[in-house]
Amino acid sequence: MSASKAAVRSKNMAGPLLRGGEIALAACEAIQEDNPDKEIVIEDHRTYMRVEADGGLIIRRKTMEEILGRPFRMQELEVNLTGFSGQIETDEDFMRWYLKLDL
Amino acid sequence: MSNVAVLSRLQFDAHTRVIDVDDGFTMDQVAAACAAPAVGYQTSHPDPSKPLRVRRTTDDDTAPTLPRDLTVKAAGFTHFECIDVFVE
Amino acid sequence: MALLDRSAWYNIARSTNWTPKYVPESELFPKDQSDPYGIPTAEWETFDEPYKVSYREYVSVQREKDAGAYSVKAALMRSNYYENADPAYLSLLKMHYGAIALSEYAACQSDARMTRFSKAPSMRNMATFGMLDELRHGQIQLYFPHQLVTLDRQFDWAHEAHHTRNWATLAGRHALDDVMMTRDAMTTSLMLNFAFETGLTNVQMIGLSADAANMGDYTFSNLITSIQSDEARHAQIGTPVIEIMIRNGKKAEAQQAVDVAFWRIWRVFALLTGIPMDYWFPLEKRDRSFKEYMHEFVITQFERQLRDVGLERPWYWEHFLDDIETHHHCQQAGIWSWRNTVWWNPTGGLGPAERDWLEQKYPGWNATHGKYWDVIIDNLRNGRPEKTEAVGMPAICNMCQIPISNKGGTVWKARIYQREYEGRRYNFCTLVCRWVFDTDPVRYKDWDTIVDRMYNGQISPPTAENILRYMGSGVVSKGGRDAHDYAWVKGYDRSPQAAE
Fold first, then answer.
1. C483: left (phi > 0), else alpha (psi -120 to 50), else beta?
2. How does pLDDT run across C301-320, given as a tens digit for each residue?
3. What is the mean predicted confidence (pLDDT) over A28-49?
4. Quick check: B3 contacting C, CB < 8 Å?
5. pLDDT at A20 (0 to 100)
6. Has residue C311 been placed in a domain?
7. Total structural domains in chain B?
8. C296: Cβ–Cβ under 8 A, 6 or more apart, which residues?
């Protein structure tokens, strides 16, 4: 993974906390594809991965389907989404974690 | 003679405790009653060379130290009176 | 048959408000149950849940979650993990299940109140799922410990604890009754969904899972993160409520509700989570300290969410930061000393290496909390184990129902904050618990702590045996003892200097 662990945390970090498993690994990959301009920080805490970036992250259904090689409903991510930082927006085609205020 | 439940704040102890005292007890007896379940169990005597004294608990810890022979009744302690038990 | 996309019908499906003809709106939505803030119904109808789900999706996803949790349990059942587990780790499970399982059932009622009495139709929809979530959490957290009752009777407290008058139960129930059982739908959402679920459940359900996995208990570790995936969704019910309240000039009311609830739940969760993380896990299995978890999930993550939805840090933030260094350390000490009152076997767990770790994580630990254990270790090393069992009663806080304690040693921070109200003297552990009382004395004034009950005749006569029986200790199961039969103190034989 190209994600940096050393990045200094900004005050505007937002993103998912993912439980382990096939979907979570695919989600990590998809998030990197869907957020090409972001420096993504992944902390692996074994039972959960904290995936965040300054200003938040998005994950798209289309990308998940490409990675998994099967149809994917965005809602399936909930099984592995044990938490998140920031606020959340859900849609059939994407999930987004974001912050309204820029601090 | 009747019992009064005082709330003891013994110097250096992490807990505060409910202690039953007789209204005829002197302050020395009150201090001993407060130390009994604490000292040697979960805390040490703050300074064994000095007697434990009693004062009412206040926010700024400036209440006068009560005379050693003053009784609970004379001090006017009532249910859940908060007291500091300490060495001077 | 092709299904419509959710977005094609979702807005219509959730628009379920109507104009009542047979009763006035004030009867349909009585303000004590619904909205005491007087915000117009049209405003509540703008409630737009950030985390959307349809019933079909809900059922399918929940089925998958349950299948995952139950299959991990079934696969590992033959491993005899629990038969061979560290007894202090089993204590964590006993405490967790006893405190949590029926609280989840109770939360089902809170969601049911939102489902019935919220004026926001979308909120009613989300709360319906929340209600089903809590039902799942109640059932699964009764089912999992049930197999352990034959192993150890103390596991029966998973089901019994809430029905007893154990002091720990009273503390938990008082807080939960306050924030989720006795409030209107909107305030419940601020207190339960936002302050409690968004604010504090992560530390218990995600943080603890990492430590549990290190212990090899994948059943529990997997269970609690699965539960938390429900919380992450239904906790979002609170966010639009806050936005609507702020927009309608009720920010101060929303802030106060969040501040009260966050503190109340913090006081209980610090015991439930902080004590096992910092004292009961073997040193080599600890992922991070409780304080480090609090920094990750609360001081960083939740504080940022709080500001993002338009609220401020609670006024007592500095007190809270200090309490993270204090509260659970004091209660580990107190619970261990009064161990026969609880339904688990706490370990002292304080060898020389553990003390070094605590000093490193909590600078100043040895000079404050450590002084308490110096006396205990001295008693154990010199053949006076009976002096490690507490006698008498600690003073109890009239708000959090927890013994009033603070850092010992020369800093001597323990102090009772009193309030006289209608001729009665109330005792509080902190300025914050007293502030909570002051926000609504009528609400809190009639409750009796376990100590109040010794003096008003409810526990009569208040002998040590009667108090224990009243609390269910020795009735449901035997009360607690040291989980390791003091084996942890042997470390000082090898390292005599550390015991000084």
1. alpha
2. 999 999 999 999 999 999 99
3. 94
4. no
5. 82
6. yes
7. 1
8. A50, C207, C288
Range of the domain at B23: 3-86
Q: pTM here? A: 0.96
At C7 the pLDDT is 85
pLDDT tens, residue order, chain B (88 aa): 679 999 999 999 999 999 999 999 999 999 999 999 999 999 999 999 999 999 999 989 999 999 999 999 999 999 999 999 999 9
Q: Cis check for the bond before C461: say yes or no (omega within 30 of 0).
A: yes
- Give pLDDT, residue C494: 76
Rounded to a whole number of angstroms, the distance between the first and last alpha carbons of chain B is 30
- Asked if B44 is an interface residue toward chain C (Cβ–Cβ < 8 A), one would say yes
Task: Please choose, from the candidates C179, C58, C177, the residue with its C-alpha nearest in 3D space to the C-alpha of residue C128.
Answer: C58
User: Could you give the CA distance from residue C181 to residue C200 in angstroms, rounded to a whole number?
Assistant: 18
pLDDT at C279: 98
Within a domain: residue A86? yes
Report helix angle C369-381 to C327-337, nearest 10. Answer: 20
Asked whether the beta carbons of C222 and C69 are under 8 A apart, the reply is yes
For B1-88, strand residue ranges (E) read: 3-10, 17-22, 53-56, 81-86
Q: Which two tokens stand for residue C127?
A: 């709360």
Strand partners, A42: A51
Alpha carbons B51 and B35: distance in angstroms, whole number? 11
Number of domains, chain C = 1
Nearest chain C Cα distance for residue B41, angstroms = 5
d(CA C239, CA A83): 15
Which chain C residues have a beta carbon less than 8 Å from that of A12? 304
- In whole angstroms, give the CA distance from residue C134 to residue C142: 12
Q: Do chains C and A touch (3 or more CB pairs under 8 A)?
A: yes
> Domain tally for chain A?
1
Q: Which residues of chain C does B7 touch, with a Cβ-Cβ cutoff of 8 Å?
A: 395, 416, 427
Residue C199 lies in a domain: yes
Minimal CA separation from B50 to chain C, in Å:
16
Which tokens belong to A88? 């959340």
Chains that touch C (3 or more CB pairs under 8 A): A, B
Is residue C428 within 8 Å of residue C404, measured between CB atoms? yes
For A86, the domain range is 13-98
Pairing mode, if any, of strands B81-86 and B3-10? parallel
Q: Tens of pLDDT along C155-191? A: 999 999 999 999 999 999 999 999 999 999 999 999 9
> Residue C159 corresponds to which tokens in the numbers above?
């089901």
Closest to B14 (Cβ–Cβ): which among C392, C393, C414? Answer: C414
* C4 occurs within a structural domain: no
> Could you say which of C7, C50, C209 has the minimum Cβ distance to residue A89?
C50
Question: How many Cα atoms sit within 13 Å of A11 on the Cβ side?
Answer: 9
CATH of residue B39's domain is: 3.10.20.270
Q: Is residue A4 part of a domain?
A: no
Q: Which of residues 52-91 of C touch A (CB under 8 A)?
A: 52-53, 57, 60-61, 64-65, 68
* pLDDT above 70 for A6: no
**Which residues from chain B sit within 8 angstroms of residue C369, using beta carbons?**
14
CATH of the domain at C417: 1.10.620.20
